[in-house]
Amino acid sequence: MPFLDLDTNIPQQDIAEDFTEKLCSAAASILSKPKERVNVTVRGGASLIIGGSPSPCVRLIISSIGVVGTAEQNKEHSSKFFEFLTKELGLTPDRILLRFHPLEPWQIGKNGTVMTYL
């Protein structure tokens, strides 16, 4: 059950209407998870500085069970997320930061319990 939280200082009205859906589909493919399990939040117009510059930028936090726990996994995921974000948002790689968070099943609540018991 991946969670993606994207913050950008690009104004919301300048982000394509279908961007959230595209990010969801891309994440499902990149992380090899069913699209129905991917959760995406996109916040445009954030007050955000990367590398000391307020130029257009993106910070993407990717949290998931079992697929973001090693450097090898995240190196592969990183390459694919950068490819998607540079293409869709027109940013250079130096204006994008990713943060990976491995999760345990007991850390995710769903249907009145936690994923451990589902």
TrEMBL record:
Main location group: cytoplasm
Any Pfam family: MIF
GO molecular function: D-dopachrome decarboxylase activity; phenylpyruvate tautomerase activity
Compartments it resides in: Cytoplasm
GO terms (BP aspect): melanin biosynthetic process
Source domain of life: Eukaryota
Keywords: Acetylation, Cytoplasm, Lyase, Melanin biosynthesis
Claim: Cytoplasm is one of the keywords in the record: yes
Entry's EC annotation: 4.1.1.84
Keyword Transcription: no
Gene3D superfamilies: Macrophage Migration Inhibitory Factor
GO terms under cellular component: cytoplasm; extracellular space
Family: Belongs to the MIF family.
Function: Tautomerization of D-dopachrome with decarboxylation to give 5,6-dihydroxyindole (DHI).
Quaternary structure and partners: Homotrimer.
Name under which the protein is recorded: D-dopachrome decarboxylase
Organism, scientific name: Aquarana catesbeiana
